[in-house]
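re the bet — no i am not wrong, look at it urself. input seq straight from the record:
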Amino acid sequence: MSTTTWVRVPLGNASIGPESWQNATIRNIKTSQNIARRSDETLGLGKLLDELPSLRDEVAKMSNEKCHQYTREVKKVALVLRENITMTNESIKRLIKMKERLDVELEHTRKDILNNNSNMLIRNSRPKREKVHDGADDLLRTERSTLKRIKHDLESMLGSTKLQLQVNGKCRKRLGENAQERGRVLELVTQAMSFIKSSRRPQTAAGEVYRYPSRTCRPDRSIVDMETDPLGPLTPEVGESLVEAKTVRSDTSALMKQIHGCIEKARTESSMIHHSVNNALNRKVAETVALSQSLNRAKGSTRMAIHRTQRHMEMTEKAWGYVQGPVAVEHVTTREKLDRPIVSVYQRHPGKELPEAKHLIEASANLDEAIKSSGKNLAHLHLSRLRLKDDIRDKNAASKIDSSIMRMRRRRSDYRWVMEGAQHERRQPNIR
């Protein structure tokens, strides 16, 4: 096999190719280097400014963060609204209880007025002699005017309470509507709100693994730091409703204090006037009984005087009969005659007149006058006895009526009776 031998011929520094040809190649090399340098510069700028492949995830994280931040703030606002609804409900409950107490006190006042009217009507049934205006009548009229004034005050307070309940209801409705409107963005959020009251987020997990480890957590704002914004979590409507709820609760508390004071004042005044009327009726009954006892003693004394006068009159009539002498002439004895023998013999001398006949006539006239006077006195005593008897009867009737009024007032003092039934209690008590 033949072999080929290569012979290296030194060229030296001589250029074989043309210079233009070399220059074209050098220009191509420099151009390529410039393009490569500009490409590297563009690549570096692109690394700084161009979007990364994780753009969608980062944008989604930012949007989710904004949504979560807004949702947390709305959640706080919703919680405050619900707390205000709860406080408003409690305020309404307390006001309803006060209204019930006010209704009970107004019912008691109306029953007292009805009882007072019944007392005055029953007292008008007293005998004419006992219808003289007295202190008990004055106190009953005072009680009636006082109870009517208390009733007017309670009715006015009841009207204010009803209006306040309506205001509370409107405020609660407004808060509920706002809470429902704010809750429209909380459908995908847990209903546990215990952490909303704190100023930071709940740490259910470590901070670096909570939802998005790489995101920067902004501090949560409290509702006090929030400003009203029509497009923010705290809208002007919500702010106005919260301020209105606070004002309404304050007004409700002040009204309840007024109601409590009005009820206590009504109870005190009604109790005082009630006891005053009872004491007056007690004293009137005691005075009537004392007078009735005095009348009974006077009646007994009058009866004894009648008996004494009757006996004296009978004795005087007998004495008058004795002075008149026998009725028939046949019954006149000789010693009783004016012309009996001793007198006839005595009168034989002139001027010997005896005053026997004159004395008998005067004695008869005096006895007759005494009998008439005794008869008049006896008639006067009988008339006085009848008057005392009528007065005693009237006093007993009046004391029974006042006693029945006192019993009725004590019986109705617990207010456990129905007004509808009392309206028909027009029958007078049996005092006979």
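see?? The chain is about 70% helix and 0% strand. told u. also Helices lie at 19-49, 55-123, 135-182, 236-324, 341-346, 356-411, 419-422. so pay up
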